[in-house]
Amino acid sequence: MKIGEVKIAEDSDFEVLKNLIDDHSNWKLAYEKAGHTKVWTQQTENCNFKMVKVQTIFNNISASTMFDVLHDPDYRKEWDEHMMSSVDIGYLNPNNDVGYYALSCPTPVKNRDFVVQRSWLDMGNEKLMFNHSIEHKDFPPKKGFIRATSYLTGFVIRSLDAGCFFGYVTQTDPRGKLPPWLVDKITKKFTPRIITKLKHAAEKYEHWKMGQKYPNFKPWIYPELTIEYKKRVQKEDCQLSSNRLIVNEEAEDE
């Protein structure tokens, strides 16, 4: 889907995601580690920042657990030390929602935030999820943050006999004045560390979840919970604004 486009994800959108993960044509291998982890990069025409792709195998972690970890907003507070704020704005339908996410960046880089539409599809042995940047009238750009752009961030998780396959692809423009070569270098360096952190988080998730007051509260699995407890988002509230472009043009890192 295009930046700013708000619509229910279709089968063709998920096929694009799977193709990005599985097809290595025009990708450059940037990192490889024994233990199945590989990182590729690809330069595209629509963005100055490279697309990054990761494939790995997580042993002894089920596809269902990994899917839960990626979805569960309360658990993310436990393992993502860069998360400053996360707001579930509401849902478009039970498999498409809208959210706000703010993250801290090391000094002197200014903190970033995003408003994204997230879409997912659970087909049992294969689970798919991706997001892209949109806008929402109640979450305009604000002082102290640079509104970054997610062209695409997606995950493909597949069940294996002793764990799961994990595919991850992302292309993000942090905006501001950071040079693309620096962002690309940092992304390639830290992506394997993020994967390791995610693995450790998944290993602890089931124990953590069972200790919560409502361990079966998983609206990403049970659509009736989404409809009952979450607010419906109106498409007209999620349009690109001229305000956003002006704020980003003026926003700079220190």
From TrEMBL:
Gene Ontology terms: biological process: lipid transport
START domain mapped to chain residues: 1-207
Record-level Gene Ontology MF annotations: lipid binding
Q: Which UniProt keywords apply?
A: Acetylation, Cell projection, Cilium, Cytoplasm, Flagellum, Lipid transport, Lipid-binding, Membrane, Phosphoprotein, Transport
* Gene3D superfamilies named in the record: 3.30.530.20
Tell me where in or outside the cell this protein is found: Cell projection, Cilium, Flagellum; Cytoplasm; Membrane
Can you say what this protein is called? START domain-containing protein 10
